[in-house]
Amino acid sequence: MSNSEHWENVYRSKKVDSVSWFQPRAEISLEIIRSTGLNPAEARVIDVGAGASVLVDDLLDANYQHVTVLDIAESSLTVSRARLGERAARVDWRVGDVTTVDLPQAGYDIWHDRAVFHFLTREEDRKRYVEQVWRAVRPGGFVIVATFGPNGPLQCSNLDVCRYAPEDLHGEFGAGYELISHQAEMHATPAGKSQEFVYCYCRRSA
User: Fold this and answer.
1) For FRET with 168, which of 12, 19, 145, 175 sits at 20 to 30 Å CA-CA?
2) Cut 0.90: pTM above it
3) Which segments of 26-103 are extended strands (E)?
């Protein structure tokens, strides 16, 4: 089964609020995005591997005007569009694999990823991801990536994952990214389990 088939099956067979990564609010992500200090009316934000995340709702509520949502599963974006109703027309919806999808060069001021990068268990996929970030984020732009922490699960959605300490996650991106801050989150899953996440907040060099 391909990656796209796997994730299409997930979003077609499970309720959105039952998957382990579900959040009723994307509070930490929104807090970090706001901390960039960029004007919501001007900042170009992309949420990669968004699934049916409510971050797009939170961004629209906070008056961000240029929001792109990317996921490999069309069915996940269908859920979000239905949830947003008429407001969905304000979002640039894109379907594709983050490591290969065609994104505009220097098209974004803020890159956000919660829980995609840790699925890239092959070095060549991580390298393509980092190259994609370098192309798509403008010089001086911001990169926010959250993965499972050192004590996080070894698998998610029946797939192997990589776990990262903050310094290791930042190290995957190299010297072209200044680490501004990092923080841990103990995410409570709908099933009542706890999962350790690590957020790294970086700035792309000019």
Assistant:
1) 19
2) yes
3) 44-48, 66-71, 91-95
